[in-house]
Amino acid sequence: MAASLITLMILSVVVYFISKVNWKLGTIVNFLVGLSSMFYVLSLEAGSSEKIVLFGQKLYLEWTDVSFYFSMVSLMVIVAVKFFSIRWLETQRYRAAFNMFVLMMTAGSLGVFMAADLITLYIFWEIAVLSSLLVVPMEREEAKRAAVVYAIISAVGTYAFLYGAFLIYQRYGTFRISTVVQSMVDDTSTGFKLAVFLLLSLAGIAKSGIFPLHTWIRKTYALSPDAFSSILSGQLSKLGNYIFTLVISVVPSLKVFSDLIVYSNVPLPNYLLITLGNISIVIGTLMAIKQDDMKMLMAFSSVANGGYILVGLGTMDPLGFEGGMFHIFNHAVASAVIFMAFAAVIYRTKTSKISEMGGLIHKMPITFLAYLFSIISLAGIPPMSGFISKWMIYQALVRKGMFITAFVAFFGSIGSFLYVFRPLAGIFLGQLPKRYREVREAPIVMLVPMVLLVLVSFFLGVWPFPVLQTIENIRMDLGIATSFKIVDQENWLIRGFAGSWNTVLVFSLFLTGFVVAYILYSLFPRARKVDLMVPHREEGTPLNVYTGGEFIYSPDLYHYNTNFYAGFERMYRNHPSWESITSAIGKLFHDIGEWFHRWFFASSASAYTFWVVATLLLIFWVRW
Amino acid sequence: MLKAMFNLVLAFFLVLSLEGIARKIVARVQRRIGPPWYQNFIDVFKALSKHPFSNGWIFDFGVIMALGGAIATAMLMPLGSLKWTPFPNTDNFFVIVYLFTVGALGMAMGMVGSGNPWASIGISRALTQMLGYELPFLVVMASVIFNYKTASIHQLVALQSEKWNLFVMPLGAIVAFISLIGMMGKKPFDIAIAPAEIASGPMVELSGKYLGLLQIMHDFSLFVEISLFVNVFLGGGNLGWFLVKFVVVWVLAVLISAVLPRFRIEQMLKFYWGVPLGLAFLNALFVLFGLTL
After folding, report:
1. Is B273 helix (H, G, I), strand (E, B) or coil?
2. Are the C-beta atoms of residues B16 and B32 closer than 8 Å to each other?
3. For residue A571, which residues of chain B lie inside 8 Å, CB to CB?
4. I need a surface site. Which of A129, A268, A595, B62 has the fewest CB within 10 A?
5. Three-state secondary structure call for residue A518
6. Distance, in angstroms, between A339 CA and closest chain B CA?
7. A407 touching B (Cβ < 8 Å)
8. Cβ within 8 Å, pair B92-A500
9. Interchain contact, B113 vs A429, CB within 8 Å
10. A59 has which bridge partners?
11. What is the pLDDT tens value at each position of chain B, 293 positions in all?
């Protein structure tokens, strides 16, 4: 395993030089490397472990079912995006660097999932974060600031993590996760365990954009290179979810905090995380509904979905755990496809504002379908796989009697219909503005990864058992309510605590419904297709749609996509904003810095000399 | 499969006749005579037989998806007992509710695909309204499922054989009924359609068979919504009993809507997130402490 990680790191430099010579070849090599690491991951056997000695420090790597699951999810997204960029990268300035950093980030992420001690985890974590950080400001000038915010908030998370790791080392004398788990269970000091739990999970909170540290998500996802947003949302945020899995489930929070159970067999620290997840769901949903920039909209959606995953995992319920784990997969695939579809739209139209688009369905039908099926999955509607994980999380919440959390989850789910419909209506449906009359479908290289990922999600919505079985095995290994079986593959059933359902049956009903509807549709007289703009194509008058007697000469004006939910948005226009609070704190630090700057770095040479002399005198006087 | 087909046939004839009867009732409330009870059959078949206009493939696809989703959900619906449950393994509440949204999404997509802003406004209102009525309803349903430890509809029906859920948790039943009126889009919650304001909203571009098919879809949706309420709150019984309860709920909803004006969209949200949601949580609290009647 160590050899493979080092190979990937070296290959990233090789890919850089190949891309310098021929960027297309470099990208293809990059894709092939990703693909082969996928096969490598498939060939690894669970339970194998390795030790590296680096500067006298022992680093441990171990391959478990959890690492396998997270690595597969990550690699799927990464490989898809790498294929996507074979064509998309032509819009970029720093192609070679993009390829190098993406590969480096892949190595870092895999290292995080392989790490068996906290320091190794930290090292690879930083590799992944830093290399992704350097990609963020590549395309847009404004993204530089976003990258700084990303760096700072990531640093908050990682340093908290490191501090927690050192606390653990000080007390137990080891970084090994398996040993730490044992010591934590035996430890009697609740305060210490609580502190470590919160410090470690802060890294996950920062990375997956959970409430107090979610402010970087909007700008970073929106302004980073378009295809890279897929990786940010679909893969990198899953590093945060990995940390949650680690601190909540691998370190068995039920056993460790057995004296801190607050409600319905959920310990206090988990409850804290669930509360944060709830707040993220509400904030993410409400903010996503009112965004005009489609990438910002999906960024807030990622915040909300991060909340879902956290809520599911935090319950420590068999259904909640499997639902949360499966939601990681579903969100990864769906958001990756959505961001890729957006990248394809931006590739053609050069804008990311919903209000500047419309009617692109007639020009980019396959991109539209990829987007459509992904939002069906994201909003949790059968027969796509997104529904299954949501169903499990609901079951867990109802089973626990956590009504407020359930309410928030319902709110997020129905709210997600609202926000995912906005790009659908604003970008793809409605009137096509005149300036996009020449727009064509995205190139085939960009369509292939989207379509493949959609097919995977679709297949798993009908037959989810391969992934669910993997997750169930993980759950059995971690010993979470081992007597409770969810997957019943013989009868094609998924069993919750309250009733079961048959995924294949639901899909066949769906199909039957469609077939019946289609038969009915074709039984009756054929429709005459009218163009929205005919007969006054030259003027572009929408004569074939109802205008209430008005003559409208611009199709752009006859397209409803700004302030889509005006009635609802009005209700929370003057909401309190966490972002303004954090920016106020930022302003405070900036002002302090300015003050220091004015005093100590004045532009006159005499003042500068004065401070130098004063400092030297001070040093002599104290005799340091 | 036969039972599922029966569901469809029943839904079609029952709800279309009931809609005709509803027109009659409303007319009588307003001191008019009103159309005959079979008027809606005439309307649907007339619409289906006319030559329509289509606004592009997404418009057609949306209509088919809407009808398909509604048909799929209607096929899944138990009718008051295990004997009339088409798929006992899969009649899970959450599955039904989410399968139901397929139709809604199809309709939304097709209608916005017509390129008419009135349709978009109607859809934006409909989705906002969904946020209004679904939340109290789902909270009530969560407490029902928590109480009976099952989300399977036919099991919920069986568990009420002694005492209807209406009497076990009256608060929950009231909230669910208020949500039901919103789901059905009856006044005062017909904000999405609002003929006088936004030219019938989503339906503005429909002609001929599109209108007819969406009317059928609407019937199936009504069937699912009311059946869900009857199953969960009004106990079990044989098919005849089920139909009687169905008709009573329908007539009650129609009578209430006949005398009420229309809400504005934010009034609707404030209403649903006020008293009904509060009562739903109160009901959940009662269930949690075992204080059901």
Report:
1. coil
2. no
3. 266, 269-270
4. A595
5. helix
6. 20
7. yes
8. yes
9. yes
10. A52
11. 778 888 888 888 888 888 888 888 889 888 888 888 888 889 888 888 888 888 788 888 888 999 999 988 888 888 877 777 778 778 888 888 888 888 888 888 888 888 788 888 888 888 899 888 999 999 999 998 888 888 888 888 888 877 888 888 888 899 999 999 988 888 888 888 877 778 777 888 888 888 888 888 989 999 999 998 988 888 777 888 888 888 999 999 999 988 888 888 888 888 999 899 999 999 988 888 877 77
In chain B, residues with a C-beta closer than 8 Å to the C-beta of A512 are 71-72, 75
Model ipTM value: 0.91
Shortest CA distance to A479 belongs to which of A181, A235, A121? A181
Give residues with Cβ within 8 angstroms of A122, minimum separation 6: A158, A161, A162, A165
CA-angle at A351, arms to A345 and A357, nearest 5°: 75
Nearest by CB: B48 against A376, A505, A524: A524
Its sign, for the CA torsion A580, A582, A585, A590, is negative
For A537, which DSSP code?
T
Tell me the two tokens of residue B91: 């009649």
Three-state DSSP at A266 gives strand
Q: Hey, are the CB atoms on B69 and A421 less than 8 Å from each other?
A: no
How long is chain B? 293
Which residues of chain A are within 8 Å of residue B146 when distances are taken between CB atoms?
398-399, 401, 403
The residue among A485, A490, A492 whose CA lies nearest residue A506 is A492
Which uninterrupted H or E stretch holds A494?
A: strand A493-495
* Most B-contacting residue of A422, A486, A509, A512 (CB-CB within 10 A), to test interface: A509
Q: How many CA atoms lie within 13 A of A407 on its CB side?
A: 19
